[in-house]
Amino acid sequence: MIRTLRKRFIRIAMLAVTAVMLLLCIIVNTANFVSVNSELNRMLEVIYNNQGKIPSLPFPGGRPGSFRDGQFTEETPFSTRYFVLRYTTNGVLTQADLDKIATVTKNDIEKYLLIALKHGEGFGYSSGYKYYVVRHNNNRCMAVFLSCYKETRSLATTAVLSVT
Question: Rounded to an integer, what distance in angstroms lies between the CA atom of residue 99 and that of residue 97?
């Protein structure tokens, strides 16, 4: 009888420890995703609010530092990879700014324009990019696509390492 109680206790203790470890992994990975997603959203909003550009020094006095609880340095405009599409609500492209990205060419624009049109307003993910689509009052739209390959790879690495 004591032996069966001991086995039950060991099973219950192992299940409890496993459940706690699994819950901790889920919490850590969820918090990591929420944080990264929030930073990407903030960067997309900054680009949108500055007419498709990252301001070189958006701080009073021109000092780099905290950027809404994140980091924004003098190097951020040079290390951020993004592109901007401006188009009408009918899907007619009016302008494509591909100056800040090397992997997207003019041949790829139609693919991303269709993604923006299909999704509509708001944030979304597609093909290694986080994007933000905004419709203006004059039936014009702007879609900002931000490369998030490094961030999503980091999230995946953290998730895999936390499980192993």
Answer: 6
- The shares of helix, strand and coil residues in the chain, as percent rounded to the nearest 5, are 50, 25, 25
Question: Which residue has tokens 């997207």?
Answer: 104
Nearest to 108, CA basis, from 90, 124, 122, 128: 128
What would the two tokens of residue 79 be?
Answer: 């290390």
Q: What is the pLDDT of residue 141?
A: 95
Total H helices, total E strands in the chain:
4, 7
Question: How far is residue 108's CA from residue 23's CA, in Å, rounded to a whole number?
Answer: 41
Q: Is the separation of the CB atoms in 50 and 67 below 8 Å?
A: no
Q: State how far the Cα of 159 lies from the Cα of 44, in Å rounded to an integer.
A: 25
Cα dihedral 148/150/152/154 (nearest 10): -150
Q: What is the pTM of this model?
A: 0.82
Average pLDDT over every residue of 52-59: 73
User: Residues near 101 by Cβ (< 8 Å), separated by ≥ 6?
Assistant: 81, 82, 83, 147
* Tokens 């958006």 sit on residue: 58
